[in-house]
Task: inverse folding
């Protein structure tokens, strides 16, 4: 009997792991074995996670990578990783470490070596950077900040609904680590982009994304230019950072399934 390939969904900052539920259902129907474990400190529900922001505080990129590596170690076979935002960076790191069969990074946070820092990205992350003390804290977004950072390509009503349903506080540490990546030779945001034995990678970008603008994703692809492995890129021109959770999520999920089929995964 065929054992279904595991798929691990990795959320980014400010969204709870349960926001992947529609994706998990779809991938299960498509014959995969999906799971969407939270970051260290995440509780099982949005409400409980909001109630205990201190549990999320001070977890950096390496903590999160080790957390998911530990989950992967318990599997019988290498999983496919699908990550959004910082989850996309984590997925690339795990792929570079040969812990995944393939990775799909959707609007992924910038890895070390990526130089563009667009103004909209600075504005989207300002709630964290305006206070250096946030390095060791978990920070919540206001509805207005969420609208700019995530919901700018959907209606105000939909943005508000997504905010109320899925948002949780996020540790500030990964953002500070990513911001300092190009000045730190041992940055946790460094990805082994030259690994020739790793599985295929798909980068997906939203053309209207304020938090991870297209220029960041294109610059990320360039980091892989010397690798002979599969490195593909796909754009959704009218979508922003909420593309995995808003009313158009299915288009993105179907594109991921189609790409995995092309890779015979």
Result:
């Amino acid at each position: 009997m065929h054992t279904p390939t595991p798929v691990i969904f990795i959320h980014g900052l400010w969204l709870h792991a349960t926001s992947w539920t529609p994706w998990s259902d779809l991938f299960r129907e498509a014959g995969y074995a999906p799971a969407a474990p939270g970051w260290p400190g995440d509780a099982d529900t949005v409400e409980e996670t909001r109630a205990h922001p201190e549990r999320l505080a001070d977890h950096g990129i390496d903590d999160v990578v080790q957390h998911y590596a530990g989950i992967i170690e318990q599997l019988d076979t290498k999983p496919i990783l699908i990550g959004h935002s910082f989850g996309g960076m984590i997925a690339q790191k795990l792929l570079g470490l040969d812990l995944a069969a393939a990775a799909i990074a959707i609007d992924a946070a910038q890895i070390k070596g990526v130089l563009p820092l667009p103004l909209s990205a600075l504005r989207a992350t300002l709630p964290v950077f305006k206070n250096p003390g946030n390095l060791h804290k978990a920070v919540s977004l206001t509805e207005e900040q969420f609208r700019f950072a995530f919901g700018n390509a959907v209606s105000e009503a939909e943005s508000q609904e997504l905010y109320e349903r899925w948002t949780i506080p996020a540790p500030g540490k990964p953002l500070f680590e990513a911001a300092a990546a190009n000045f730190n030779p041992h940055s946790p945001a460094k990805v082994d982009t030259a690994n020739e034995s790793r599985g295929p990678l798909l980068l997906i970008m939203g053309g209207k994304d304020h938090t991870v603008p297209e220029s960041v994703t294109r610059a990320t692809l360039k980091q892989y230019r010397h690798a002979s492995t599969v490195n593909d890129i796909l754009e959704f021109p009218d979508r922003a950072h909420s593309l995995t959770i808003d009313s158009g999520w299915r288009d993105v999920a179907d594109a991921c399934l189609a790409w995995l089929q092309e890779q015979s995964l």
About this structure: DSSP finds ten helices and eight strands in the chain.
